[in-house]
Amino acid sequence: MKDKELSQAGSLSPYFKRRQRLITMKAIELLQSGEPASTSVQYQANLRHRILVVDHDRDIRLLYADALSRPGYYVDAAEDGAAGWEALQVNRYNLLITENDIPKLTGVELVRKLHSARIGLPVIMAAERLPTDELARNPLLQLVTTLPKPFYISQLLETVRVVLRATDSSREQIAPLPDWRSQPSADGLRL
Q1: Burial category of 98 from C-beta neighbours within 10 Å (exposed 0-12, middle 13-18, buried 19 and up)
Q2: pLDDT confidence of residue 81
């Protein structure tokens, strides 16, 4: 079963909540550890991650897409929140990078829709004006991290590397869901 299908099953929400917490904790741990950037080249070469960038500024979208594609990431870009939401429903992404002040659907509203749809996707908010008050009022809208604009592209690349590495290691830490068909029933018979 795909992650999107799993995330839509109501009984699996604790699984995805735990996964999101592990991703967030691991990303914070790696960001605070100051791990050398030299390990990133080998790591990035081994994995092909797909990233969605949502920003109203065409130049910013192109800059992020160019910078992120150089180390080997697949990058899609959307010009507003509604287009970003459409892309999230059609494609499977490993990371969302969004501005907050975007047309049709703000970055926070996009994160809220992700949460409501039970899509466990790490989110980096790269914004000029971070919605700290709104995020504080809604603790369930967990962002993995924020990048206040302006920032250096090297900061973006390092943050993305750390977040994706944390995401991958959290997948390794969480045991796969049991196959209900191989579990004994109440009377001890296998189904």
Answers
A1: buried
A2: 95
Give backbone dihedrals phi and psi of 19, rounded to 5 degrees, phi first: -60, -45
Residue partners of 141: CB distance under 8 A and separation at least 6: 108, 111, 112, 115, 135
Q: What is the pLDDT of residue 5?
A: 36
Closest C-alpha to 122, from 77, 171, 78? 171
List, in sequence order, every residue forming a beta bridge with 54; answer none if it has no partner: 78, 98
Q: What is the pLDDT at residue 43? A: 41
Measured at the CA of 22, the angle between CA 17 and CA 27, to 5 degrees, comes to 130
Q: Are 177 and 15 in contact (CB under 8 A)?
A: yes
pLDDT of 11 reads 34
pTM over 0.70: no
Contact 53, 68 (CB under 8 A): yes
- Cis preceding-peptide flag for 122 (omega within 30 of 0): no
Domains in the chain with CATH codes: 1-6+47-168 (3.40.50.2300)
Residues 191 and 183: their CA atoms lie apart, in Å, by 7
Which amino acid would we find at residue 64?
Y
* pLDDT tens-place string over residues 151-163: 999 999 999 999 9
Positions in the chain whose pLDDT score sits under 70:
1-47, 170-191
Q: Is 119 helix (H, G, I), strand (E, B) or coil?
A: coil
